[in-house]
Amino acid sequence: MCSYDRRGLGRTARTLDIASALTGQLPQCSILVLSNLSIIGRFRSPQHVDFIRLPGIGPTLASQPADVERTLRVRRAIAEGTVESFRPDLVVIERDPAHLPEEMRHVLAFAREKLPRTRIVWALPDVVGEPRAVSPEWSREGVFDTLDRFCDEVWVYGVRAVFDQAREYRFPKAIADKVRYTGYLRAPVVPPHRIPTDLLRAHPDRPLVLVTAGGGASGYPLISNYLDFLEHVNGAASFQSVVITGPMMPSRVHAQLSERARRLPHVIFHRFSKHVLQYLRHAQLTISRGGYNTLCADLTYRKPSILVPDAAPPHEHLLRARVFDRLRWCGVVRPGELSPVSLGECVTAALSGRSEIPRPDMAARVSLDGHLTIGERVRELIPARRAAPRPPSPSKEIHQRTGTH
Amino acid sequence: MPGGTASRLLIYSQDGFGLGHLRRNINIAYQIRTWSPSTSILMVADSPAAPFFTLPPQCDFVKIPTLVKVDAGIWRSDRLVLDHRELLAVRTRLLDAIMDSYRPDLVLVDHMPHGVFGELVQPLRGLRRRRRRARLMLGLRDILGAPADICRQWRVEGAYQAAERLYDGVCVYGCADLFDLAREYEFPPAIASKVTYCGYVSRQQAQPALDDASLARLFPRRSDALVLVTGGGGADASFFMDKFIDAVRLMFPRVGFDAVLSTGPFMHPEQYLLLRRKARGLPIHVTRQGQDNIRLLQRADLVICMAGYNTISEVLRYRKRAIVIPRTGPSAEQTIRTRLMSERGLFTVVPARGLTAEGFAAMIRTRLESPRAFAESGLPELDGASKAAQHMLAAIA
After folding, report:
1. The whole model's pTM is what?
2. Which pLDDT belongs to residue B185?
3. What is the mean pLDDT of each run of 10 residues along chain B (397 residues)?
């Protein structure tokens, strides 16, 4: 599974969850995840899943490569080396197809040539971006051609009735036929008795608002406005908050926000937490930027949510917020309207129950069985001979023998 | 000082389960970047927690599938259900691809001249063939293990041959007067003549000591003294940490110090939770994050630790009083290190076996009250990062 994140960590987090679900369903299956995420080492790898971390490109990564060309060459060499030596039966790509499209084209062409029987799938979140931006970009960047020539299927981790990608993005017929809607991806189960210690020490009678900024690279406006709002009510808020900025927020920005949060009562503030779902489970309201994973968690635990999408093209968050808003699954504060006042009104209304905004129960009807559908697709795509257990090796432990030279 | 030309350094750091080699290599990387800001560095690691520590600018990393050392010469795939030949083929193919595409000017291989199962031999030979100007350096920590074991392993696995044929130089991150590695491991003259003793490596431009405000956040009511308890990666540290909590419980409520217990990322989650639960109500802060250990260590009045290379280097560098509990297996590395260093009076050594809460408590009290850490004259060379970086940059100058 190849997962490339740009500014965030959503794709890799999702890929690891899917990998975990797949190895649970297919016990003999080994999954190698290729990811460019610099902090992938902070995630716990599921059983039978290992990862290869590729060098990164771009200003948000921990270190800037001196030479983008060289980095791309190394990444391509590693991806091709993996294809040739690991010889996967199935390759699943999760990345923005219009970002550095040549990189995947080379690797997929290589995989097709070396492993003609290997199946290739491109996976996409429920929405990619504004149709008027996505469709022309995909034609221009040769995305349709790549999907057509190299991919056996295109998975959409969403529901057709919610957003019909093939129609909205005007997929050519050949690609539209390859599209499989898997449903949304149910968030992992969190036992209700697991409560983060800092929450345990907080006030159980106060309603809880969870504010998350995803990876955090561009989370400043949301968090800053939220803290402004709390500062404005001057500690008189009737609820408590858990604020998670995201590990990719620049350190200086994080430090500044953290300092402000520390002066406020009833605020738990983290940069990264392994317990986001535990907080979410105990929250009465969530506020996020509309990232796919957070939304899936909101749907899974039926949490009323307010989305504060950013305005960065191709407007994935904005479009998702609009689609969910239209279905009345959430409240939205639009990019131009974000202010401490607008955000505060939304929060107060939602918590008081006066609001007609979040009606999460409506969403209960949407499919969250993405992991099961993906499992079925995998079983169908990989011929039975390979799905059968490999012959057992004499022992899982291996003994170093005489040197090879 | 060498530098100026834009060169590329590749560092191979095989850790499997742990962080020690990675940390030492990152410390060296920082030093190289200090002297040669135009050098870019690619770390090739296999620790699942990599990079864990903040990397210097223009340094990035690749993580390859993980092999875990079970015992001397016995390895298993960490995660994948793969036959060992398959996993090794993947790793060798990746190493080859990386050498070929990155085209390093200098390769630093940490502690395994031939890599796991000789996985490095072919990629390094390939590099030699395709890029004649590339220089290859081998880095060895002060003590690898008991001489009899290491000599046998190196012979059987072909490590001597690799060290002799593939490398331009060997940096030993230790001191010959403490442990003469080349003699102890019976290096033939062809290898011994390439050896440079660099001294102990620690981070030269370490982050500043943890400030009062941060400490106050951990301990709202501060005591007079601070004790840092650390077990490196943490995979096998729970035993003495558990005993430490028992010891503090005995002293309670007149403990007289605050303690940070840094379990490391590899401690089993259940063990970690057990320790947290057990430490409740005591002035002990239990944390998994070890990134700030060096900042805490600078503030500590006493360090209680295992005898991993990096921790010991830092204890010596900051002249800390320490109680050291060496790991007894699978290799004799830590027991040899602590024996040689305690003979010089550098710290107190306690065998893990027979450690009781009462004895531990008494020892902590004694050590906290003892006035001086140790005699400067007993200290080994501690500027290993500088010497090693200098040596490596000179090789490609």
Report:
1. 0.90
2. 98
3. 69 87 95 92 93 88 89 78 86 97 96 94 96 96 96 95 97 97 98 98 86 87 91 84 96 94 90 94 89 89 95 94 90 95 91 90 92 79 96 93
Q: Which two tokens stand for residue B272?
A: 């970690």
Q: Which CATH number, 3.40.109.10, 3.40.50.300, 3.40.50.2000, 3.10.20.580, labels domain B8-200+382-396?
A: 3.40.50.2000
Side chain identity at residue A129, one-letter code? G
Q: What is the Cα–Cα distance from B278 to A256, expressed in whole angstroms?
A: 34
What is residue B136's predicted lDDT score, i.e. its pLDDT? 98
Nearest to A63 among B6, B59, B79 (CB): B59
Place of tokens 């500043």: B208
Structure tokens at B106: 């200098």
Per-residue pLDDT tens digits for B205-229: 778 899 998 888 888 888 889 999 9
Tell me the ipTM for this assembly: 0.90
* B75–A393 CB contact, under 8 Å: no
Cβ-defined contact of B81 to A390 (cutoff 8 Å) = yes
Domain-wise residue ranges, chain B? 8-200+382-396, 212-378
Average confidence (pLDDT) over A228-235: 89
Beta bridge partners of A313: none
Q: Residue A232: phi, psi to the nearest 5? A: -65, -45
Tens digits of per-residue pLDDT, B94-130? 999 999 999 999 999 999 999 998 999 999 999 999 9
3-state SS string for A283-310: CCEEEECCCHHHHHHHHHCCCCEEECCC
Q: Which of B245, B246, B296, B236 lies closest to B267 in space, CA to CA? A: B236
The C-alpha R_g of chain B, in whole angstroms, comes to: 21
> Which chain A residues are Cβ-neighbours of B63 within 8 angstroms?
40-41, 51-53
Digit-coded pLDDT (tens) for A325-382:
988 888 999 989 999 999 999 999 888 876 555 555 656 678 999 999 999 999 999 9
Tell me which of B80, B103, B154, B292 to substitute to probe the interface with A (most A C-beta atoms closer than 10 Å). Answer: B80
| Nearest CB partner across the interface for A85, out of B55, B59, B90 | B90
Band the pLDDT of A269: cuts 50, 70, 90: very high
Which residues sit opposite A180 in a β-bridge?
Answer: A155
Q: What is the mean pLDDT of residues A101-118?
A: 96
Structural domains of chain A, with CATH: 2-186+368-386 (3.40.50.2000), 197-365 (3.40.50.2000)
Angle at A330 between CA A324 and CA A335, to 5 degrees: 80
Least Cα distance to A275 among A388, A187, A368 occurs for: A187
Q: Tell which residue, A12, A56, A3, A67, has the closest CA to residue B43.
A: A56
B212-378 to CATH, choices 3.40.50.2000, 1.20.1530.20, 3.65.10.10, 3.40.50.12780: 3.40.50.2000
Per the CB < 8 Å rule, is A41 touching B100? Answer: no
Cα–Cα distance for residue pair A380/B225, rounded to 1 Å: 63
Task: Give the residue from B55, B74, B81 with the most A CB atoms within 10 Å of its CB, the best one to mutate.
Answer: B81
If pLDDT is split at 50, 70 and 90, which confidence band does A397 have? Answer: very low
Q: Are A36 and A62 in contact (CB under 8 A)?
A: no
Tokens of B271: 């063990």
| Average pLDDT of the residues of chain B | 91
B29/A contact by beta carbon, under 8 A: no
